[in-house]
Request: fold
Amino acid sequence: MVAGSGANRRTLAKLLVVAAVMFGFGFAMVPFYRALCEVTGLNRVARSDAVENTQVDATRTVTVEFDTNLRNDLPWTFAPVEKSVRVHPGALTLVTFEIRNNSDRPVTGQAVPSYGPQVAARHFRKLECFCFTQQTLAPGEVRRMPVAFVIDAGMPQDVNTVTLSYTFFEVEGRNSVGGDGNDRGRAG
Amino acid sequence: MEAAHAHHDHAHGHDAHGHHPSGIMRWITTTNHKDIGTLYLIFSLTMFFVGGLLAMGIRLELMQPGLQFWRPEFFNELTTMHGLIMVFGAIMPAFVGFANWQVPLMIGAPDMAFARMNNWSFWLLPPAASLLVASFFVPGGATAAGWTLYAPLSTQMGPGMDLAIFALHIMGASSIMGSINIITTILNMRAPGMTLMKMPLFVWTWLITAYLLIAVMPVLAGAVTMVLTDRHFGTHFFNAAGGGDPVMFQHIFWFFGHPEVYIMILPGFGIVSQIVPTFARKPLFGYSSMVYATASIAILSFLVWAHHMFTVGMPAAAQLFFMYMTMLIAVPTGVKVFNWIATMWKGSMTFETPMLFACGFIFVFSMGGFTGLVLAITPVDIQLQDTYYVVAHFHYVLVAGSLFALFGGVYYWLPKWTGHMYDETVGKWHFWLSMIFFNVTFFPMHFTGLAGLPRRVPDYNMQFADFNMISSLGAFGFGLSQLLLVYGVVKCVKGGTKATDKVWEGAQGLEWTLPSPPPYHSFETPPAVK
Reply:
């Protein structure tokens, strides 16, 4: 039996190192994909966009509809003040959303935006949004939150209606820490 | 297996070998590669029937439109657990069982390199399988996130998901230890003269498969660990609320998942490459091209993962890259198929059961390969994503591919392992019934899939009723036919015509120079290979 021979042990050690490195590689993919999305702009939906000073295209009108969702049992009421607005590409528009914490405990939530049709995401520029940060609401608190956006002129001509949908997720483990109600969300 | 005792050789003066425990302790404490190979094969046969039972549950519900038998949640548990158990409990351990039995015999080694670790890597499996099966009985039932465990489903399920995660951790550890053992055995313990390019192709495919396993099983372990910490420890790897991304789970999972599908087919290629030359009575055509084709498939398997997720939204450039890379895999796979056919060309072929399964494998696996090419085309895939066309595709390569190769291998080496010939009539019935019922079950799924029937849904539109009825009847037939395998194997283990050392007229290789069954300790003096 050669089981204990040095050559076998050396091979075992090398292969164990490979397995350990690959375990680390699985985790290394997390920052790698974050960086990739950052560089390519694939996932740029939850942060402030830069807007150049563009001309307002008054010849065109785009309807922006708002959709609000709560994930799981988030004990909140969440609704837009206006269900939809009609805007010209290039015009800065301000809309308001309202959330209310219906529970008797402070709750922290994070809103995640998405767009329909998908192509609109690239041309929908948010300058200010409650989705950039986590929101902590005291029991019974009501908060009105603004979203400032510009639809850039590059929006494809056949897109006449854009749906902006927000889903609020509860961020667990934040309530006991006692956030200041506006603490920055995790980078990325 | 008891016959192995009779041949036990005391003459070598290795005292420790003389009195190994008997009864159940023999199997628990065994470090013998033949015993462990047998354990692996029995374990995977058991899990094959557990997973098969779940499949019968799926087809029972799908026999008619509407909900007859199960709640939709339980149906999803059935599909998920069928996939997990078949992949990790049946197919993979069966191939490791073959490796344990055959690799030392084929390269002229006395045993596996790390005999105790070998025992440990097998005995991790029954607890892992128990965790999986037990998860049906915890509150909320087993995981129903699909065998791919996609977030955010997997980050929200009940405790059944945690049991599945632990089971995957344990099975992953077992696979990694098994692979390290196989690589070390192959690299360091070949008989003198057995150069790498003289190794039987089964050994080559397992060497490459073992490298794949070591590269990707830890990545799966990492992915499910992230799911676990997302579920219980407040991390946000896949939780959009915390800045994570559920799509990232798919990227990490398929980095493991695509090499995994080759892990399940490459040793099958190896088995077929042993069987075809034996029954064509000609050496394998294009041996070295077979080796290089296997290696190219292994390398390409790391570059195609995103073809499982064309619909998540990715730049056209990435879609094109993954589409072309996927199509490129058809080249080395084609080399293999043509080499098998060229081996048969003008050979003196006979069609015993192993050869029937090998021919059936080549025929049906190629069909699965072609539907794979269809699915590789991005715009087509976007239409067919998550339909029964995909279900048909991967059952053609996994059932008629991996499983038929395993069946062929069992019939091919069973006389060597037991010392008795199996019952040829039973074997042939098993092949023909499996082949026919397999196609009755899965061929109609191409049509339902093209017409848009989504997978993982217990109910469907009336228009799919006829094809689903055919599929279900075929599945019941396929399930029942597998009892013939058990009957044939048990009969062969218990007795039968004495097998000769060479068993098959055209057999080549070191394992056929040993008596049938081989002595408990074989090749203690390495054979010389010319």
